[in-house]
Design a protein that fits this description.
2 copies of one chain form a homodimer. By secondary structure, chain A is an alpha/beta fold. Chain A has a domain at 106-280: Alpha-Beta Barrel (TIM Barrel), CATH 3.20.20. Helix content of chain A is 41%, strand content 17%. In chain A, helix 4 (112-125) packs parallel to helix 5 and helix 8 packs parallel to helix 9. The longest helix of chain A is centred in the N-terminal third of the chain and has 18 residues, at 2-19. At the A-B interface, helix 1, helix 9 and helix 10 of A face helix 1, helix 9 and helix 10 of B.
């Protein structure tokens, strides 16, 4: 009975992964098993900033050890001005390790040229979504780009210090009447530091919630620090329940920002905790 | 709301820890906060075998990083023939790091002298429980010792290869009519490898379940290997529910037996997963 339940969870996870609306990057495509059973799993990935102090090889080694297979790639691993050959080579490195680059970012867009660059880069990388931060006066232009390219834009909130999008509400109020390919990458740690109610924010975002940066923080205040998931103030069972409540279809990408020169144990504990909460709620 | 819930969980955990029936080791006593709220938390510890390749200092460093505070100490860290001074020194090392030695073992008892040694050692270490493996013909003698010393004996099951106690049932059938200080340290991984139904075994053990070695395994068969908790076949939400069902009052000690020369990431993932399941079920 235990085994069959486990098997179901594994198949369900594969099922969702296989039906995610993320196109593969040409030759870098990873073989995936397709299951007929698609339950509301919450696949776990990694936000690339976690590996800010490590090159691609070392980042891959950590992801393999963590048994994680989805990456939101950061520019320090794949620069925005990379040649097509460079992009293919880096994607092939990840693919060889069973890792799928499912989005790019966070990319700041302060000029029209930066918007053009971001969408051109995303197209070359072969992802259908950008995690980005466009200036307010570029939202109309960004909306034109999501329409013309069919690449979604998930705007990232960065906490009390962020002059544009401190919390999910500043994102949602500026996109809610725009094209449905404009959405939110909710950073739950930064949102928590603004005092936001995460469950309400997830519910409010609904289908506009495209991506997640999952972390924990020491308090619901500006000065709070990043900490291993489970040791801070965020109610993860509540977050997971809220995600299931909106039938969230995206990734849950761990972004670990403590011990950045020696992050593996902290990422491991964080990943374990989040997966434990997910598993317990199934 | 999220914060108050979290706070409650933290207080509840402290509450249970503070009310655990484990005497402190004299000068090595650790200051503990006592809470009026005592909810059915499941405090997480470490089984000392996890650190078989590391000395006391390195083991402490890992436990501190993992934020774990309860240890079932193994003889390689505190030999059975240690002088009182040696015992005091090692306990003081752990205590200075906020770590409480809550039991000793696993200790094999193949002779009457070995039983005497084990109980004498436990008394000197200041614990109220031994995790041990007495030969069948020593059970009467061991029972006399638990009565005369008031030190409990938790018999450990070691899987299909174990000629004495492969699964919890071989323990329970030999102690169920004996003194109530005779009980079980259930190793859920080894039990799983015998094909045991863990939830039924926990229910059957009830108040005789004194201690736990928590791990995951790749299959419900003899040849199965240890693996990070959450990646194997054990249904942890089911195990946790069963433990709550019997109002389990002991420790849940992680015993990680993979990557034994570089275990920290695996212990961290395992600890995180188990804590995540516990938190989600509260």
């Amino acid at each position: 009975m235990e085994q069959s339940r486990k098997k179901f969870i594994q198949q369900a996870t594969l099922g969702v992964a296989a039906t995610m609306a993320i196109p593969f990057a040409g030759k870098a495509a990873i073989a995936q098993k397709v299951s007929a059973q698609a339950a509301p799993a919450l696949p776990v990935g990694i936000a690339g900033y976690t590996f800010a102090k490590f090159d691609v090889e070392k980042s891959i080694a950590m992801m393999k050890r963590l048994d994680l297979h989805y990456l939101s790639v950061k520019d320090f691993h794949l620069p925005l001005d990379s040649s097509p050959e460079k992009i293919a080579a880096v994607l092939a490195q990840f693919a060889a390790a069973g890792i799928k680059v499912y989005t790019v970012g966070v990319i700041y867009m302060k000029t029209q040229e930066a918007v053009d660059t971001a969408f051109s880069y995303a197209k070359k990388v072969g992802v259908d979504m950008i995690v980005g931060v466009p200036n307010y006066d570029l939202l109309d232009y960004a909306e034109q780009k999501v329409k013309s390219t069919n690449i979604r834009l998930a705007i990232h909130n960065h906490g009390p210090e962020d002059l544009l999008y401190p919390s999910p509400k500043e994102v949602l109020e500026r996109i809610k009447t725009r094209d449905t390919k404009m959405g939110l990458c909710m950073d739950i740690g930064h949102a928590k530091r603004t005092g936001a109610n995460l469950e309400a924010a997830i519910k409010e975002a609904g289908p506009r919630l495209f991506d997640l940066h999952i972390k924990d923080v020491t308090g619901a205040l500006k000065e709070a620090k990043a900490i291993e998931i489970g040791r801070g103030v965020i109610d993860f069972p509540g977050v997971v329940k809220a995600l299931r409540g909106i039938s969230y279809k995206g990734l849950c990408s761990i972004e670990y920002e403590k011990d950045m020169t020696d992050p593996l144990p902290g990422i491991a504990e964080s990943t374990g905790f989040f997966k434990g909460v997910i598993t317990a709620g199934m």
